[in-house]
Amino acid sequence: MAGVLFTFFIAFLGFLLAKVPGFNHIGQLASAIIIAIVYRQLFGYPDAIKSGITFSSKKLLRLAIILYGLKLNIDVVLNDGLSLLLRDAVVIIFAILATIWIAKVLKADSMISLLLGVGTGVCGAAAIAAVAPIVKAKEEDTAIGVGIIALMGTVFAIIYTVLRPILPMIPVDYGIWSGISLHELAHVAIAAEPAGQEALAIALLAKLGRVFLLVPLCFIFIYLMKRKASVSNEGEAKIDFPWFLLGFILLSVLGSYVFGHSIPVSDSVMNGVSTATAWLLTAAMVGLGLNVSLHALRTRALKPLLAMTITSVCLSILAYFIV
What we know:
This protein is mainly alpha-helical. It is 76% helix and 0% strand.
């Protein structure tokens, strides 16, 4: 219990740090991960609270992903966003394959690069957290990937807002461009909001299409992992079924067709759940960050960061021309 409270305490410190000028651009999640990594290098943490920290990094993370399903309105995506889904699929495939290829050229860490490709293509931290257990990623790799996505996604969102006034795009097209190319829902909101409510709405719809595709992507990775084990004569791959994805799907269905329809739910309640989800995800990422060594950041993160940055730039250009 003490370890869980400790992760929430650092999450709270991240919340406060995100209020400071400069850090207010990167948000609570990235700020909390930075604090967690720095704390680990300076002080470590007592073994007595290790089990609680592990609980946060595993159980709370899965709970956060399940609750994240409420952000996905399936009805809206299927009725209004079908034309965007094809472009979303192209973006996801390009981001993953390009990051993996560039990582091979740079001889970057393959696992971190894979996670960054998934995060870039789909929906940032949530996508990385969903795919990591399927591909057997270490907690340290997951934390590094999430930290990089949070920081670089913010940088790209700010660049988008700077470029918006000089780009020859109408607000709706700019919104689509932001929605199919930026990393997280928050990054899309940051970039699209200055273009107006119509641009913001279409941007979030485009982004939700990518979130929608997270589920089939996870099942594709399950198949590929089992196939890889079979080809390498390792026998049947022992891949724990990601049951939390079923919770994600269930809450997506409930949020799309039940809550607010047959069961009235106020906006304040939904906003409260969204806030709770953000805190749970932050505490979980703190748990992961407490397992990151500074040596690993120096030796393993720089090349994947470069690969992901190159991919993100190319993705922005590709998305611009397919809008």
